[in-house]
Specification:
By secondary structure, this protein is of the alpha/beta class. Helices cover about 30% and strands about 25% of the residues.
């Protein structure tokens, strides 16, 4: 039995991303505690894993437009804390994907530094690529960060199907086989699409939809959480999502006046 934990978009450095609550300022600490405590409980429930597959944006970046919602803009500090959070898993093997340049920095790939910190500070095995291609018990896995977004409620499934179909066609051209499982991230929503040839998953995120980032979001689906991939010796696989359900402050109505009738 092979078990992998799949995480993405942890955005370490953002006040609304994944962080040990001790790092986060008072106005944001309650959100940090909720996300951090949920993840700790989930890690304990899943237990030991053979691999952690992180789909990108392990760090939040230097804050190109605004630093007011970051608890640190120091890229090395973000990398150190990201590695510390990843090392909470009972696991020795880490495979990361590069995120977008906006979050990893223009001049260097900060996420490569995360892998270095995993190796040096936590004695873990790790590597990072734009696309991770992994085969386990005959099951081929294609993992990458970016996938197209859509504000249309049923648009995400088309974007995932496009990813897999494009890879299959590219494989025909370049003479490599398509994958059985595709994992993508970036848009902070859980979704599944597929047929008898492939199944494609969009990973939930580990960042609250709040602050300046939250103001830009105008779509139905937004999901926080992670996934567990299990592959048996005969190649039978399952993917189980672990999702954090939490009500946001903006979703509650402010009662200005009550109706006294009745």
């Amino acid at each position: 039995m092979f078990v992998a934990a799949i995480e993405s978009d942890t955005h370490v450095g953002s006040q609304f991303g994944l962080a040990n609550p001790r790092c986060v300022g008072d106005p944001y600490r309650e959100f940090a505690e909720t996300l951090f405590d949920w993840r700790v409980a989930t890690i304990q429930e899943i237990g030991r894993v053979d691999m952690v597959l992180h789909l990108g944006e392990a760090t939040d970046g230097p804050g190109h437009k605004s630093t007011i919602e970051q608890w640190t803009c120091d890229m090395e500090e973000q990398a150190i804390h990201s590695a510390e959070l990843l090392a909470m898993w009972n696991c020795k093997d880490y495979r990361l994907c590069y995120g977008t340049q906006y979050h990893t920095g223009d001049d260097s790939k900060t996420e490569r530094m995360v892998v270095d910190k995993l190796k040096l500070l936590h004695n873990r095995k790790g590597d990072i690529k734009a696309t991770q291609r992994i085969e386990v018990n005959g099951v081929k896995i294609n993992a990458r960060h970016h996938v197209g977004a859509s504000s249309t409620p049923n648009g995400k499934w088309g974007q995932l199907a496009k990813v897999a179909t494009t890879d299959y066609l590219r494989g025909c051209y370049r003479e490599y086989p398509g994958a059985d499982l595709y994992f993508r991230a970036h848009t902070h929503e859980f979704a599944v699409a597929g047929n008898d040839m492939y199944t494609a998953y969009n990973s939930p995120a580990m960042q609250w939809p709040l602050g300046a980032y939250g103001l830009k979001i105008d779509r139905v689906w937004y999901t926080m959480g992670l996934m567990k991939l299990t592959i048996k010796a005969d190649g039978e696989w399952t993917v189980k999502p672990y999702l954090l359900k939490a009500k946001l402050p903006e979703e509650s109505y402010a009662v200005v006046r009550k109706n006294n009738k009745g």
